[in-house]
Write a structure and sequence with these properties.
Helices cover 61% and strands 0% of the residues. The chain is mainly α and 79 residues long. α1 packs across α2 and α2 packs across α3. The longest helix has 28 residues. The radius of gyration is 15 Å and the shape is elongated.
Amino acid sequence: MAKKTSRILPVAPFERVAKRAGAERTSGDGLKALRDAAEDYAEGLAREAIAFAKHAGRKTVKAEDVRLAAKRSGNPPEQ
């Protein structure tokens, strides 16, 4: 995937995610890298979910589409 020049998500929430995951400290560059990776993953997941919705003849993406896309990517959401 091509490198993005502008990002949608702010960095601050990823500091909380890193702390919840067990990081004592994370550099600013580390947080940006985490944000970039998460945003890239989310965009790919959204594209996959959209494809599932279209395949089902819908324009609306439903939770089941997202769950299927996540499962297909090997990262199913925790229940």
